[in-house]
Each structure stands twice: as C-alpha cells, then as structure tokens.
Amino acid sequence: MFRPSRVVPGAVLIAMLAGCGTVDQGKTAPPAGNPSSSSSAGGAYINVVKLTGIAWFDRMNQGVKKFATTAKVTATQTGPSTNSPEQQVSLIQGLIAQKPAALAIVPSDPSSVIPVIKQARAAGIKVVTHEAPALTDVDADIEAFDNAKYGQKIMTDMAACMKSTGEYVQFVGTLTAATHMAWTEAAYELQQQKFPGMKRVSAPVESNNNGDQAYRKAKELLQAHPKIAGFQGASSEDIPGIARAVKEAGLQNDTCVFGTGVPSQTKSFVADGSIDAIYLWDPELAGEAMLSAAKLIVEGKQLADGTDLGVKGYEKLTVSPQNPKVFLGDAMLVLTRAEIGNYDF
Questions:
Q1: pTM of the predicted protein model
Q2: For residues 128 and 117, what is the distance between their CA atoms, to the nearest angstrom?
Q3: Is residue 70 a contact partner of residue 40, using CB atoms and an 8 Å limit?
Q4: Pfam families this protein is in (predicted)?
Q5: Which of 59, 94, 108, 136 has the most Cβ atoms closer than 10 angstroms to its Cβ?
C-alpha cells in the first residue's frame, strides 16, 4: 500500500470531506430563535448543512453542540434529508422568519443560496458560509485550508501510487459543489502539468453525495475502462462507494484510491488496501469555527489576517488573496493505515 507523507496542520484538526427532499430534524435539535436562552450576542445560531443523515454532517453537529455549550448560546443544526439545493434554499427562507442572530450555511450549490443570503442579511442576520469560497455577499466564508493545495496534495499522492502513469477518474458530489470542483480542477491541472503519463478517462463523475451511486458508477467505469489505475473522490461518500467496487473486483493491489473521507466509514477499506489514503478536515471543528466566527461578527468584531477563532486549526486565519470575504484555516489531515486508527469519528 502506498503511504503518503502526512500534512501537519498548524494544529491537528480538520473535510472531508464530501455531502434534500423533506427537512429532517431527526438527527439534530430543532432550530430555535428564543433570545432569552442565548447570550448577550442576541438570538440563536443555526447551522444549515447540505444534507442530514451522513457521517460528515453528523460529526459537524458535534461542533455545533460544543459551540453552544462553550459560548452559552442557543445553537442548532438542520438541513434537508436529500441532496437538493432547492430544499436547502426553502429551508433557509423559513429560518429567516425566526430572526436568528446568525446563519452558518454549507451550501449544496453556492450560487443557489445567493438570493436567500441577501434576504437574511437584509433582515439583520449575519451569514457565515463554508465550502463556498466564491461567494461575496456574505459576512465571511470559513475554509479549512487553501482548496487548490488540497486538490494538488491528493493528486501528488495518487500520482506517486500510480507511478505517474495510467488511467484515472475523478468523482465529485455534484458539479455545482464549489469546493469539490476546486479540488478536482486543481488536481487535474497539476496532473496535466507534472504527470503527462496519466490520463483522465472522463469528465468528473457525480455521485450526488451518495455512496451507493458512487459504487454503481465505479463498477460501470471499471467495466468500461478495465485499465483504470486510479480513483479520486471529492465527496466523503465517494471513496467508500468506490472502494466497495474495487474490493468486489479484487483490485485492491492494482487500483489507487484517494480522496476525502471520514475515518469511521473508510477504516476497514484502508486496512485491506481498497483505499490508500483519506484527506479531510474535522467537520466538528469546522462547525465550531463557523459559529465562532459568526459570534465575533454578531458582536461587532471584524475578522482579519491572524484572527484566532479559538478552535484547533483555526487559530490564525489567513485572508484569501482571491476573495477578501474568505478566511483560511490550516486544518488538513492525511490519514493512511498508520494514522487512521487514532480517529474515532
């Protein structure tokens, strides 16, 4: 099995990686807007994720709960139960009427939430996003790291595993997922520049943040392109599905599988070689960081180079040179068989 060098963040943290129908409140506490139960910052804090019911956002909800306890405010997480930008937008519209102090949003499709973000801010609600580095009509966007560097790291390690030659394919949750596409495009550009012996066999493949879809599409690709030597996954649901197909075909020792993942979902596949390495930031800490940034903004403070959110990996924010509303942490993790057992989420 290939073992890439570990990226050492400023502090160990991290997303993965990776994900709506009807609104699912079963996995999270219902959003509340009762100012009497919150701090002097005023109002509730609500985190709206892409979809509920997957390991990534279950983990993020732990950070929301920790923020509520530490900051002594009302803070909850909600989201659609299927990966639908339309349902997420509808949910946010309903939350605006509750007049929370702040909304943190992990958009399924960043462009689709622009109108409701404008509505929220016009109503005096502070808005902080995550995985949406192109948005400008927000109070801030918090990213775990530089997205291009993340994609380049995955490609560099996959190329080493593939000995810089052979066919590969890239998966994304959706083509509208801004960070998934940023990682994928940066990786593809690096491959073309540095690893010309490698060949991408198709445009990025959408899994719709669904492991079963990733499994089915990986099986189809292995049948259509039996010489595929590498898979890269952007959604945290991608590489577990891909690994099932690789293992089923008995190709663990012949196929390099790299991408965003959650340790609990990928540990067994890493152990048997169906996945070579996972890349991520801890969703718990990302959720806590988003809401900590929102609280500072609610209190009238400004984020800047060097701002410390009091969360591991986000102790010294850097302003993105591409967008002054984007603030980067240093929270990347790379886990192979040697390290993955140290993480319990």
A1: 0.84
A2: 9
A3: no
A4: Peripla_BP_4 (PF13407)
A5: 108
